[in-house]
Amino acid sequence: MERGGVFGFSRSPPPRYRLVRPITRSQLRADPYLFKEWSAVRGNFQRRVYAIPESVWGHLTKLIGQTNRGFNTVLRQLMGTRVSRDIVSEKALEDEVGDNLAILKPEYRLELFTSDAGISGRQYPCAGQGGAMGFIDLLCVDRHTGGFLVIELKIVRAGLAAMRRPCCCRRPPRWPS
What we know:
- This protein has two domains: 2-12 and 86-168, no CATH class; 25-69, no CATH class.
- The chain contains seven helices and six strands, in the order E-E-H-H-H-H-H-H-E-E-E-E-H.
- The protein is of the alpha+beta class.
- Helices cover 31% and strands 19% of the residues.
């Protein structure tokens, strides 16, 4: 999908189970085990990617199973299912695209943006509305025109909000007016 310089990639299988009662962030923070054992909770999910240790995964699935009928059955069925190598992680997709930007549109002659302070265009930090921090997956610049291109990558089905999010970020230091 191409719209005004924002590309979206979606390789998403259909959902296998939809949570009726998802765990809220406040419930995660209130759980003493998760707060102690999982850095994502302690860090308020401020980074883009967190590893989920096996013990934490077990605890999370137990909590979800207690309030979502049928979840444990679906989880047992999926545990033996192999994950496609194409859909392993958003980080892997970011690495693949970021290392070979020419696969998008060779005529753009893209390179990753680097700020004057040396901040890379990968996971480029930006402040959104209300001061909330966000990250642009890949912030690129066209070597020929100097134009910017924001690339937001998703390996799961993403709503319109994911495509609008980069538009809420403040301009990077050299962003054209």
